[in-house]
Write a structure and sequence with these properties.
Helices cover 32% and strands 20% of the residues. By secondary structure, it is an alpha/beta fold. α3 links the parallel β4 and β5.
Length: 354
């Protein structure tokens, strides 16, 4: 059986997003498509515009705002909001980076939104995703769901998903779940509480995506976003939605910022994990070392200290401690894996082990 590029990419945890950094979307009123019935026209590239555009479908538990630079805030919404955001990749883009500005971005130099379209309801959201899937060959009708980590505002996280999709040439439809991170280094506790709050919205999104006409649905969480993923899967298992868990073609936790004891409890509550279930760890991950200190010295699942426990649970562990520095965001910027992805090598061989 032929392994798709996305499937191979999944096995080596390429869908990571860096924590931190401030960004704005750069929207103007003319970039906003007000009617859900309209289909955004593709932007024609020119010498001053983006070299590529990545559509990202968004479900978020953030509150809407009237600010076009950040149309969703850090406040918690009692219901999901839906949108499509088309992200322009600048001509000067360097693989692995998100070139961004904390003021109005220049599309010739920075990631910027070319179109923002709020979608009125769940049905319109899923209809649009199905329309995107229908444009692909049957064997490439895949969905890549990404859940961002701590200290990300809305623009930070959608830009990172677009960067990953572009740099690794992912064929999948990008679906982004944005939970209400405060996007502030000093508000770790707020983000931890928001991650717990965000599990309801992600569980709802996963239920909704069972209606998608996709051949594969891969769920990826980075850092604190991995906690959101595990809590959502626990919620689905406890409410009897095992059909939703079976719909997942795989789950990946990249550099998970989860207490080891809490993780084992989550796994027990979920029961039968989706397969493959992959955890990326790194002993060189300084961010998780800081998180461990903040939380009283408790080991984090992604810090590489609990590999035997993960393997005992039947989880595939990939140790990135020595791969291109092994940092918290190594797989968003790894030149080794980007080269392998674009050459097609990842579809023909096992992931690198160091």
């Amino acid at each position: 059986m032929t392994v798709s590029r996305l499937s191979a990419l999944f096995l080596v945890m390429l869908m990571l997003a860096g924590c931190g950094g401030r960004a704005v979307l750069g929207l103007e009123p003319e970039n906003v498509v007000k009617s859900s019935a309209a289909v955004p026209a593709p932007l024609v590239n020119d010498k001053t515009g983006p070299k590529a555009i990545i559509p990202v479908f968004v479900a978020t538990s953030r509150e809407r705002s009237g600010d076009l630079s950040l149309p969703y805030t850090s406040k918690r919404s009692p219901s999901l909001n839906f949108a499509r955001v088309d992200i322009g990749i600048p001509p000067n883009h360097k693989n692995g980076e998100v070139e961004k500005s904390n003021s109005k971005p220049n599309p010739a130099r920075h990631f910027a939104a070319t179109t923002f379209q709020p979608l009125d309801n769940r049905q319109i959201f899923i209809d649009r995703i199905n329309a995107e899937l229908a444009r692909r060959p049957a064997e490439k009708r895949e969905i890549f769901i990404f859940v961002h980590g701590y200290n990300n505002n809305f623009a930070d996280s959608v830009f990172r998903q677009a960067q990953i999709a572009y740099d690794y040439a992912l064929p999948a439809v990008a679906v982004h779940y944005s939970w209400p991170s405060a996007a502030a280094l000093g508000l770790y506790v707020y983000d931890r509480d928001s991650a717990t709050y965000g599990r309801e919205g992600l569980a709802e999104l996963l239920q909704l995506l069972t209606k998608a006409k996709a051949s594969r649905v891969l769920l990826v969480g980075h850092s604190m976003g991995s906690f959101v993923v595990m809590e959502a899967l626990t919620k689905l298992a406890e409410t009897g939605h095992h059909d939703v868990l079976r719909r997942l073609s795989g789950v990946m936790l990249a550099a998970p910022d989860i207490d080891v004891d809490v993780f084992q409890s989550q796994v027990a509550d979920i029961g039968k994990l989706p397969r493959p279930f992959v955890v990326l760890v790194s002993r060189a991950d300084r961010a998780l070392n800081v998180s461990g200190r903040i939380t009283g010295g408790h080991a984090r699942v992604g810090d590489g200290s609990s590999i035997p426990m993960l393997q005992k649970l039947g989880i595939l562990v990939l140790d990135a401690s020595s791969l291109d520095g092994g940092s918290h965001g190594v797989f968003a910027s790894s030149p080794t894996l980007m080269a392998m992805s674009r050459s097609g090598q990842l579809s023909r061989r096992d992931p690198p082990r160091r």
